[in-house]
Amino acid sequence: ETRKQTMAKKGGSMATAAEFQHADELLREYLVFRGFLGTLKMFDKERANDKAKQYQAERIAEQIISYITSFEIANLMELWRYLDARFFSRLDTRFNKTTKRLEQSIKRYYVIHCVQTGNHNKCRDFFEYLSDELCGDDEWRPWFVLPFLRNTETPPEFEPYFNKNWQELLSVSIHNFLSTVMAYVPLPQIIGFDRIQRENVTLRNTVDAQYRELLGIHSTIGSLKRKNAELAASSGKPQVLRAPGNSLSGSSGGATSTSSPTLGIADLDPEIAAYDPTRASMSKLRNPLNRQMGISGATVKKAATGQSSSGFQCKCTKEFRGLRDNVVLAKFSGDGDLLAAASKDKIKIFRAALSELTGSPITTCDTQSDVTCLAWNGTQVNTPNKLFLTGHSNGTVKWWNPETGSCFLETKTEHIKKRVEQISFAPNGLKCIISSCVPRSSSSHGPTGPPSSLVLWNVKLSRAETLFEIQPPSAVVRAIDFNHNGSCFVTGADDGHLRLYDVASKQPVMVFRAHEKSMDCVRYKGDETSVFTVGSDNMVVEWSIHMAGKVLNSFHLPAIEEVKKSKSSVLQPHSMGLSPDGKHLLVSPPCGLYELIPPADGNSSKMESVSVSGLPTVGIQQVDWHPASNMMFASVGQHDSYVKFWELSSTQ
């Protein structure tokens, strides 16, 4: 510890394993966000073979000793050459002799260990491996005889090396030398920034603690002054009361004046008086430290409490009617101008722009078969050639013009199975993923091949482009979501597994079990550092996208007996919507709104339930958030032939 403090004073600083781990996570998160999945794979591969052991001297020293005791001369020399090229060669020239002596001692320790354990063959292998290097060295010439000596023969000049004390001192010397070298390695800015951030948090907490202490002192002073005034009024004589450890007098004689008024908050320095972490006015915080860090008082309070302070009222402002049968699906277009509502074999298109909410359909699409899924071509507002696709229970995919209500293309290929489960477009609308399966009831007499498929479809060329592998083949993908640039996508399947696919490599880069039962929904978080999933086990979970299987948040949906399974097989048990600003999550059934609270002070983000008056928790089967408004969404009832349009308003 003393050595570390000395190095810090000289300008050196050793990073901890936790700091390297955090920096690696930040880098992985950035690569996933940018869609650089090939770079991510190479990074993970090289990190797994990290020879520098996160610059931890103790781990490097243990690796060196491990190679010696396991007789791995090739690995030992490879590691030493790496350290020499990466660190030792960049040291000041005065360290050259120390480095050479230490290398000589490590090699001699290897030979001595071979002789002590009776592995003379390993000893001969050592000299054969380094023959070109050692033959011309006079210091090593006597050592060539060691492989051929009997165990009872130990020349006097080698006796010090067979001493246990020498071997222990060598281990300590290796550790001390590596610690010194690593302490002088300049740290990258990403680790330095993380340290500064933690220091700022510590300083902020210190300021808060000192402010509370200051308030306590002034409260005591005010109380004493009031008592002094009361005693003076009752006795007719001024009384002197002092706060413990504090003098109210500014004179050297110790006399206390009673003419000064009681000291309150208003008498404090304006900067201190304005800083009150217990009040809602913290948004007007003028504390110099927080102003420098760009942190408002409201942010500090909300992050400290970890509670959602918002509440909403909800009312139905419009009903989209025109379908005779129960509505099974309802989705907004990427720009929010249109809403498609599907019943069993018909689809109605409504104007859904906030300035054109008429509630009457503009076109009707006759699907002639059961609709199982629906998707608009892209989530980007400027997506060209607006169209939408529907998947059907007979294995067909139909392409629709929403303005005319006409089906201009019908697709059914060998890559698409008997039932289309899910369709999801890339954000630019040029490609889509189609998930299909052979229903288990008909798998025994169905076509040969895997029972499920996941196909990347080229929209412009109207053909299958990539067939993604699903393991096990029986897993059926029921939920899909692309990242912002379409370079990768996540899927949720009926086996409860979450899979992250790289479009370029055509392979899953992450697979883990997310739910005990089937997964109903999956959505990327706005910053794409995590994904939200909802399963038929009634669990809503936020998963880290750069650490497989790491749970960031989770909660269990309340059980409501009135929520029954629909008679239609096309409905999923749960649906999920994310507001455009990424701050609220809507889950149904049972219908509930959850606020996503950003992380603060190095803590993880949180999900808090939000009170919404006027929103029924029972009866809403599916929800979809309006892409152009953070306060409006559509819902489909369990047995309704219309779509409701809801508007939220804050109660604050």
End-to-end distance = 52 Å
- Determine the number of helices (DSSP H or I, runs of at least 4 residues): 13
Rough shape? flat
Q: Specify the biggest β-sheet.
A: 8 strands, mixed
Question: Which structural class should the secondary elements be placed in?
Answer: alpha+beta
- Poorly predicted residue ranges: 1-12, 240-307, 443-447, 562-571
Radius of gyration: 35 Å
Q: Which sequence of strands runs across the widest sheet?
A: 22-23-24-25-1-28-27-26
Q: For the residues shown, what is the average pLDDT?
A: 78
Give the total of beta strands: 28
Give the DSSP E fraction (strand runs of 2 or more residues): 25-35%
User: How much helix, percentage-wise, in residues?
Assistant: 25-40%
In a few lines, what is going on in this structure?
The protein is of the alpha+beta class and 652 residues long. It contains 13 helices and 28 strands. The strands form 6 sheets. The protein has an 8-stranded mixed beta sheet, with no helix packed on it. A 4-stranded antiparallel beta sheet has the order 2-3-4-5, with no helix packed on it. Strands 6-7-8-9 form a 4-stranded antiparallel beta sheet, with no helix packed on it.
Short key terms for the protein model shown above:
single chain, 652 residues, alpha+beta, 8-stranded mixed sheet, 4-stranded antiparallel sheet, 29% helix, flat
Written description of the protein model:
This protein is of the alpha+beta class. The chain has 13 helices and 28 strands. Helix 6 runs antiparallel to helix 7. The longest helix is centred in the N-terminal third of the chain and has 47 residues, at 189-235. It is flat. Residues 1-12, 240-307, 443-447 and 562-571 have low confidence and may be disordered.
